[in-house]
Every structure is written in structure tokens, then in C-alpha cells.
Amino acid sequence: MKKNLLDYIPFTRRLRRNHALEHATMQVLSERYPGLRMAGISNPKGFFMVADLPTELMTEATLEARRRLQGGEKELAVHPNCGTNIAVSALVASMVAGSVLALSTVHEKKPKWYHYLIALGAAAPAFFLSKPLGPLVQKHITTSGDIGKAQVTGVYTQRVFNGSVHKVDTQA
């Protein structure tokens, strides 16, 4: 199997694998509990997830996600609500707006508001047209569906207000 260059850096390899496991866990939880509200963030040692569930259910979902990723269900690594999707579209829109502003202010002597309006008019469709790039960036850069022999070493839960924050520890 062809290796991604980011996999040669231990920090990013672990982060991408944990991000994939986080997404896969969210996918499993969504299948089991439709409408469950959750949010997660990954790091090289695991991930945190906010979801109002007992530790046992979070552990079961994480272990199933790990099993399914290791079984070849790499598509679980890409999640439709990942922040990468928003970040990619925002980056594309801001680059388009910046380019339009740079080009329009050089060639035209119109008021500033006019140039900003043109830039906004270009950025809005760029934001929406760039939506398909987010999942591609997830698939090839921010996650890795190939989690190797990654192990879940612990799932810890802390009750916060009316919900739960789960800390999932992993090891490669």
C-alpha cells in the first residue's frame, strides 16, 4: 500500500489515525443513536468527545469503530461535519476574495466599498463550490483510514453540566 508522506512523521501519523478513529466512532454512534449531538477533537494520544453517553457505550462504539477501520471500512474516517470541511471552504473563499481585492484595487479607482462588494460576490460562490474539497482533504491529509494496529488503551468520562466529556486514549 502506498504511504502518505505525512505518515513518515510520527506526530502526524498518530494524529491522522486518531482523527480517523474519532470520526469512525461518531459514525458508529450516529448509526446506533440517530440524532445524538456530539463533537470531538483529536490529538496524537487519542481524542476527546462530547456526547451525553455512559462510558460503557462510548467504549463499545470506539472499539467497534476501531474494528471496522482495521477491517477495511476506510470511508468511516471521513465525516460530513468535520471542521476540515468548513476550514477548506473558508480558505478557498478568502483566497478568492483576497485575489479579487488585489486585482480590482490595482486597476480601478472606485470606492473601497465597491471593491469589498465585488470580493464578497466572488467569495460566496467560491465557498459553496469548494465544498467537495473538504472530504478530499480529510481523506488524504487530516485523517488516515489505515489505523494499523492502533489500540484503545482507555476511555475515561467526566460529567460536565448536563453532559459528558469522554477522553479516549490510544497507542500505535
Task: Tell me what the structure shows.
The chain is 53% helix and 18% strand. The chain is of the alpha+beta class and 172 residues long. It has two domains: 5-78 and 143-171, Threonyl-tRNA Synthetase, Chain A, domain 2; 83-134. A four-stranded antiparallel sheet has the order 1-2-4-3, covered by helices on one side.
Low-confidence stretches: none
Tally of separate domains: 2
CATH topology of the largest domain: Threonyl-tRNA Synthetase, Chain A, domain 2
Helical fraction equals 40-55%
Tell me, rounded to a whole number, the average pLDDT.
94
What percent strand?
A: 15-25%
N-to-C SSE series? HEEHHHHEE
Q: Which descriptors would you attach to this protein?
A:
172 residues; alpha+beta; Threonyl-tRNA Synthetase, Chain A, domain 2; 2 domains; four-stranded antiparallel β-sheet; 53% helix; 18% strand; elongated
Mind sketching the topology for me?
Elements: H1 10-32, E1 38-43, E2 46-51, H2 55-70, H3 83-107, H4 112-129, H5 133-142, E3 151-160, E4 163-171
Helix pairs in contact: 1-2, 3-4, 3-5
Short characterization:
The chain has 5 helices and 4 strands; from the N terminus they run αββααααββ. With 172 residues, the chain is α+β, with helices and mostly antiparallel strands.
